[in-house]
């Protein structure tokens, strides 16, 4: 396992970038001895402490920021310090305290036996106390072994990592740090890698890698059109966002090795592969979306809930809820998908323009992206107006429904007030009776006032269509908000061009 059995490293050798797994030395003899001491009945935790102390003199003992063996997604965990050692007096006091507790517990449970059979009582008391003390001694040793093994592993990891850092040809290495950390690695003269992690913080954990070439970020442009959902805030900030697990180190280092070697040996091919090919895939997809947004949306629907063929975690396919929404609102969702994809590409323009220094075709790609968004603009404005009209119509229907509901509620109000009065009076007369329910009086009232039930039925018949209208308005308003954000992007880009 990464950072337990080996550390991932990127090395430079003869102008090649090499991904290697550097073994972390183990301490099998020390661990085996400590494990044997746990099973040896004649040995105490004090003996284990002494043996551990010989292996780690006081000067070598330190706190190590090391998460293993906990998961990166665990929370409320910390690094490891040298295991706490007990003095002889502390150890004896623990045993004495445990013995007192065992005896006290036994005495309270078997007081009747003490009176009926004192001899048997004392014999059983001694047996149970001795067994309990034996288990306690074993637990102390087992607990110390766990702490010792974790410290041994952490120490081996840190020692190996320190040795790696001293080697002049090491360009990058994996870490197992608890909490926030950020490292930058100069892999080659042109390629820089940044790794940001936050391990051991539950749902707040993350694992992010960024690559820059000659100071320009390399981004996954094609992901915009490959997947239903692509978090643009992340796509324009990071090259990759990985699953928060140890095995992601290998995926990340494999990517760094391949990309860096290409950049080192064939700069033009690197930019074409990692930038231009991505941009071309994005442009091809955007044009296909504008040509037939319904067909594109239906392709996304067919992939609903499929696992993404990507190591970038802020992109995904449709889920079942989104698929069901599309089945009800195919036209609206197709329009939103098309608009978000086309205008989403505008977020890439700043970074793409920096790359035009290396590949002149980038300038043409930027122009094509802007042309596509401008071509969409009239249709986008028209559809927003259409949604405005639909929402206004729904607002009128909702207002009418509210008025009808208010009329029925006004007729119900006197009846509800009478039921409340009957209920409160009954509670006052029977203050100690907790089994008095309003529904009981409501049912009795209905028998005497059948018109009350009629009003209730009328209200129920009105509420269902009312909620449907409210839901319909909410959905159309959501579509409108999404399209207005797309429209804002186009206007902002036009203003930027005119400035």
What does it look like?
There is one protein chain. The chain has about 500 residues and is α+β, with helices and mostly antiparallel strands. The chain folds into three domains: about 5-170, no CATH class; about 220-360, no CATH class; about 385-499. It is about 65% helix and about 10% strand. The protein has helices at about 30-40, 45-55, 90-110, 110-115, 120-165, 225, 230-235, 250-265, 265-290, 295-300, 320-330, 330-345, 350-355, 360-430, 440-450, 450-499, and strands at about 5-15, 15-25, 170-175, 180-185, 190-200, 205-215, 215, 230, 240, 315. Strands 4, 5, 6, 7 and 9 form a five-stranded antiparallel beta sheet that branches. α1 runs antiparallel to α5 (about 120-165), α3 (about 90-110) crosses α5 and α9 (about 265-290) packs across α14. The longest helix is centred in the C-terminal third of the chain and has 69 residues, at about 360-430.
Secondary structural class: alpha+beta
Give the DSSP E fraction (strand runs of 2 or more residues).
5-15%
Tell me the number of strands: 10
Estimate the helix proportion, in percent: 55-70%
Work out the radius of gyration.
Answer: 35 Å
- Low-confidence stretches are none
Count of DSSP helices?
16
Number of domains: 3
How is the biggest beta sheet arranged?
A: 5 strands, antiparallel
- N→C terminal distance: 54 Å
Compile the SSE list and pairings:
Blueprint: E1 6-13, E2 16-23, H1 28-39, H2 45-55, H3 88-109, H4 111-116, H5 118-166, E3 170-173, E4 179-186, E5 191-199, E6 207-213, E7 216-217, H6 223-226, E8 229-230, H7 232-235, E9 240-241, H8 248-265, H9 267-291, H10 293-302, E10 315-316, H11 320-328, H12 330-344, H13 349-355, H14 361-429, H15 438-448, H16 450-498
Antiparallel strand pairs: 1-2, 1-3, 4-5, 5-6, 6-7, 6-9, 8-10
């Amino acid at each position: 396992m990464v950072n337990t059995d080996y550390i991932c490293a990127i090395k430079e050798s003869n102008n090649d970038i090499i991904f290697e797994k550097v073994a972390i030395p183990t301490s099998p003899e020390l661990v085996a001895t400590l494990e044997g001491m746990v099973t040896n009945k004649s040995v105490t935790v004090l003996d284990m402490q002494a043996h551990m102390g010989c292996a780690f003199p006081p000067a070598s003992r330190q706190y190590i920021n090391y998460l293993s063996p906990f998961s990166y997604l665990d929370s409320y965990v910390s690094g490891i310090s040298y295991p706490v050692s007990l003095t002889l007096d502390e150890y004896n006091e623990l045993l004495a305290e445990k013995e007192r507790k065992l005896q006290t517990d036994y005495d309270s449970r078997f007081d009747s036996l003490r009176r009926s059979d004192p001899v048997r009582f004392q014999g059983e008391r001694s047996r149970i106390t001795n067994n309990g003390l034996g288990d306690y001694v074993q637990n102390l040793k087992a607990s110390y072994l766990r702490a010792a093994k974790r410290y041994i592993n952490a120490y081996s990891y840190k020692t190996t990592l320190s040795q790696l850092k001293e080697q002049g040809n090491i360009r990058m290495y994996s870490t197992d740090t608890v909490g926030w950390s950020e490292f930058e690695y100069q892999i080659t003269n042109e390629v820089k890698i940044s790794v940001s992690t936050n391990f051991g913080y539950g749902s707040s954990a993350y694992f992010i890698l960024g690559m820059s070439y000659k100071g320009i970020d390399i981004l996954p442009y094609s992901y915009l059109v490959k997947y239903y959902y692509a978090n643009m805030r992340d796509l324009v900030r990071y090259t990759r966002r990985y699953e928060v697990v140890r095995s992601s180190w290998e995926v990340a280092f494999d990517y760094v090795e391949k990309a860096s070697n290409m950049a080192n040996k064939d700069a033009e091919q690197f930019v074409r592969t990692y930038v231009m090919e991505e941009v071309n895939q994005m442009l091809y997809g955007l044009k296909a979306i504008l040509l037939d947004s319904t067909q594109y949306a239906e392709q996304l629907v067919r992939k609903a809930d499929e696992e993404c063929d990507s190591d970038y975690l802020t992109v995904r396919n449709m889920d079942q809820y989104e698929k069901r929404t599309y089945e009800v609102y195919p036209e609206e969702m197709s329009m939103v998908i098309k608009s978000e994809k086309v205008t989403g590409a505008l977020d890439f323009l700043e970074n793409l323009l920096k790359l035009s220094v290396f590949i002149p075709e980038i300038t043409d790609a930027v122009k094509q992206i802007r042309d596509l968004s401008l071509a969409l603009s009239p249709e986008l404005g028209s559809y927003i107006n259409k949604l405005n009209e639909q929402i206004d119509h729904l607002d009128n229907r909702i207002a009418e429904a509210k008025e009808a509901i208010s009329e029925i509620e006004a007729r119900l109000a006197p009846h509800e007030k009478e039921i409340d009065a009957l209920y409160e009076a009954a509670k006052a007369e029977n203050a100690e009776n907790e089994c008095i329910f309003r529904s009981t009086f409501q049912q009795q009232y209905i028998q005497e006032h059948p018109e009350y039930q009629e009003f209730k039925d009328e209200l129920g018949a009105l509420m269902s269509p009312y909620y449907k209208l409210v839901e319909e308005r909410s959905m159309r308003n959501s579509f409108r908000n999404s399209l207005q954000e797309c429209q804002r992007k186009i206007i902002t880009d036009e203003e930027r061009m005119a400035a």
